[in-house]
Amino acid sequence: MKRNTNHIQTTHVGSLPRPDDLTQLMYDVIDKKPVDQSLLAKRVAKAVHEVVNKQRAAGVDIVSDGEMSKTGFSNYVVQRFSGFGERGQMTLDDMAEVPLLAGKMFSEEGGQHVVMPVVDGPIELRDREAVKIDIANLKTAIGSLSPDDAFIPAVTPGQMLFNFANRYYPSREAYLEAAANALRPEYQAIIDAGFNLQLDSPDLAMHHHGSTDGPIELKNYIPLSIEALNHATRGLPPEKMRLHLCWGNYAGPHHHDVALGDIIEAIIKTTTASFISFVAANPRHEHEFEVWKEIKLPDDKAIIPGVIDTITNTVEHPLLVAQRLERFANIVGKENVIAGTDCGFSTFVGFQSMDSNVTWLKLESLVRGARIATQRLW
Questions:
Q1: Is residue 138 assigned to a domain?
Q2: pLDDT (tens digit, 9 = 90+) per residue, 319-373?
Q3: What is the pLDDT of residue 114?
Q4: Would you say residue 4 lies in a domain?
Q5: Other CB atoms closer than 10 Å to residue 309's CB: what's the count?
Q6: For residue 349, what are the contacts with CB-CB under 8 A and spacing of at least 6?
Q7: Is residue 7 assigned to a domain?
Q8: For the chain, does the N or the C end have fewer beta carbons within 10 angstroms?
Q9: Domain membership of residue 339 as a residue range
Q10: DSSP letters along 269-325, please?
Q11: CA angle 130, 271, 226 (to 5 degrees)
Q12: How far is Cα 147 from Cα 339, in angstroms, rounded to an integer?
């Protein structure tokens, strides 16, 4: 993925709202109901084409497949890998203090289909064709566009550990090593196809206020998680990788979130990915742009700050987007700032807090704001 040369590039974090009929098909997949696989494959391919066209119409520079083929940014692995058993349970400290909100959030159909099973057997890749199909669908959809102007997200070993509790491996280290080995072929295939690889790792922040298998201190966890990720991406070009971290894409209070300043230096020093994507627009984390005044961004790194919130229906004014981008550019350099979103717009199928149409209004505002910032910075 290129650095900026003459304008602020725009992108997002990957997942986009799925069409209603595809959403229903995905619910059937999650519920293990009979699904016409030929129909599903055709609908996914069509949806990828549609969503790429919408991104290009909005003016987004670096597009994705919208994760149309996936039941969720992380739980798609349940369909592609072995080792998963009964449904597990996650605790989030902030949501525990607002039980009525939590109950409402997960009582709706989308929330009921956020399934996080435990790992009770060896994690192994069992569907080697799935990522190949994702690649083929996106290649067809982008047409003459360079694959370097597109990306495909994939879950990280650490996020698997965070989402899917360990009931099989003797240690976290053993779990992470197995997950890394299983995920590597997916990473390799995406980059070999010329696409950029987004590594989804909310665990790096969320282990502070959430858990499926007990607490762990981030100062011990972050090196462990990134070591496993570096093992999985060994030999892959850093400039083709973007690491996404966040505090959970749900409309909760987030008052137990760890501060960005407490974790970002350890992440930057250890990850091999050249691009760091992070939350910077929502009201819990927008102030943290000042962290970058204290931390020296290495020459081999660039940032993708979220300048659009992904859990509210209010569309950010382009001037606000421009202001946010200029803040970062004035600190780390305009060539090192790509305009992004806080998170995905539909991280799990059907689980989104905003109207689907608002997504496109927000992406249009993102692009307009980046253009304003470009005019001011260049």
A1: yes
A2: 999 999 999 999 999 999 999 999 999 999 988 778 999 999 999 999 999 999 9
A3: 85
A4: no
A5: 22
A6: 18, 23, 26, 27, 30, 70, 71, 72, 110, 113
A7: no
A8: C
A9: 20-377
A10: HH---SEEEE--SSTTTGGGGGHHHHSPPPTT-EEEEB-S-SS-SPPPPHHHHHHHH
A11: 70
A12: 19
Length of the chain: 378
CATH number of the domain within which 183 lies? 3.20.20.210
How many CB atoms within 10 Å of residue 366?
Answer: 28
Domain assignment present for residue 3? The answer is: no
Q: What pLDDT digit, counting tens, does each position of 239-289 carry?
A: 999 999 999 999 999 999 999 999 999 999 999 999 999 999 999 999 999
Question: What type of residue sits at position 339?
Answer: A
Query: Residue written as tokens 């989804």?
Result: 200
Amino acid at 244: H
Q: What are phi and psi of 244, to 5 degrees?
A: -105, 125
Structure tokens at 178: 């197995």
SS3 67: coil
Query: What Cα–Cα distance (Å) separates residue 302 from each residue in 239, 299, 346?
Result: 10, 8, 25
**pLDDT digit string, tens, across residues 289-317:** 999 999 999 999 999 999 999 999 999 99
Residues 6+ apart with CB under 8 A from 129: none
237 contacts 247 by C-beta, under 8 angstroms: no
Q: Using 50, 70 and 90 to split pLDDT, how confident is the model at 172?
A: very high
Radius of gyration in angstroms for the set of CA atoms belonging to the chain, rounded to a whole number: 19
How many domains, in total, are found in the chain? 1
